[in-house]
From TrEMBL:
The chain crosses the membrane at residues 47-68, 176-196. Its main location: membrane. Belongs to the CALHM family. It comes from the Eukaryota. It is a multi-pass membrane protein. One of its GO terms (biological process) is ATP export. It comes from Poecilia formosa. InterPro entries: CALHM (IPR029569). This is Calcium homeostasis modulator family member 6. One of its GO terms (molecular function) is monoatomic cation channel activity. GO terms for cellular component: plasma membrane. Keywords: Ion channel, Ion transport, Membrane, Transmembrane, Transmembrane helix, Transport.
Length: 320
């Protein structure tokens, strides 16, 4: 188990390795799913059944990628209460750019599923033998003696393995589409990365440092928030059970939490690497870091987003 955690830790720090691990697990899951759960009905439901197995798991993986993304919740937590800021074109463009980056990461698993499913060919064979497009059915049966009988028997083709020629034709079409999907994904990823690097305001080595800093800050943020939450919970429990005056525990205010949870865009003028870095530097230079005690009279009128925190849906967000 410890070795497995070590592998996951390395994969989380190496983006390309993490993407490769996700793609590999998705491909393995598709193979198991195809051999165990998929059974083509070989009737008029072929098209719908094959299409559902081809697309719905990919959609589920996409939604799961959004749900598990911390950046997704950093982007959308509290956005309804700050919707006036989205009216600004600059803020709206930054939000759309961040959502595009989140989507590109979430698309790794569904695109892997879709490509591997096409290379396997089982879903495509089942779906296309149930299509009602007469032109396509005539194309498949053009070399048969009786095209009419062939078109009627197409739904039974995945269950009847005697006509290997038609099955090979369908499988070859599916595999061609699969390789085209893989090539298009790789080409579009290369173009997007090239455009992003060409427009980068910093050098390659500084970009590596920025990523390393963001990763370390995110991990330490989780550690510090968990420790601080534990200390606060222990303080409250001791005060309750021992019926004693609680000790003062200093914690950031709501506005301070909001400041370090905003999206951050690197600027060569400020030379900050995150919202937390900018907050610490600017507050040290100004009036000092403003802290409040949990026993202070700060307003407790918190937004409904705290229900997500209470439900354990969102962990402490790392700064971008």
């Amino acid at each position: 188990m410890d070795r497995f955690k070590t592998i996951l830790n390395i994969a989380s720090k190496q983006t390309n390795l993490g993407f490769g691990l996700v793609a590999l697990l998705t491909a393995g899951g598709e193979q198991i799913f195809s051999s165990v759960a998929f059974k083509c009905p070989c009737n008029e439901l072929n098209f719908l059944y094959g299409l559902v197995f081809l697309l719905v798991p990919a959609l589920a993986l996409l939604l799961l990628g959004y749900i598990l993304s911390k950046k997704m919740w950093i982007l959308f937590t509290g956005i309804w209460h700050n919707r006036a800021k989205l009216c600004c074109w600059k803020n709206l463009a930054t939000t759309c750019t961040a959502f595009f980056q989140i989507s590109s990461t979430a698309l790794v698993a569904p695109s892997s599923w879709f490509a591997v499913a096409l290379l396997n060919g089982n879903y495509y064979e089942c779906a296309m033998t149930g299509t009602n497009v007469s032109v396509y059915n005539q194309y498949l049966c053009k070399d048969m003696n009786s095209e009419l009988d062939c078109a009627k028997k197409l739904p039974m083709l995945p269950c009847d393995k005697r006509n290997e020629e038609l099955l090979r034709t369908l499988r070859s079409q599916s595999q061609i589409l699969g390789w085209l999907v893989i090539t298009s994904i790789m080409l579009s990823s290369l173009l997007i990365i090239c455009l992003a690097r060409c427009n980068s305001p910093i050098s390659y080595q500084q970009l590596k440092f920025w990523r390393a800093y963001a990763q370390e800050e995110s991990e330490l943020m989780d550690l510090y928030t968990n420790k601080h939450a534990k200390d606060l919970a222990e303080r409250n429990l001791k005060s309750f059970f021992n019926q004693m005056e609680p000790a003062n525990i200093t914690t950031p205010s709501n506005k301070d939490w909001e400041k370090i949870s905003l999206l951050y865009k690197f600027s060569t003028k400020d030379h900050f690497y995150s919202t937390l870095h900018r907050y610490v530097e600017t507050n040290q230079e100004g009036d000092g870091i403003r802290m409040v005690s949990v026993r202070s009279n700060e307003s407790t009128d918190n937004p409904a987003v705290l229900h997500f925190v209470d439900g354990g849906m969102v962990s402490a967000p790392p700064s971008l």
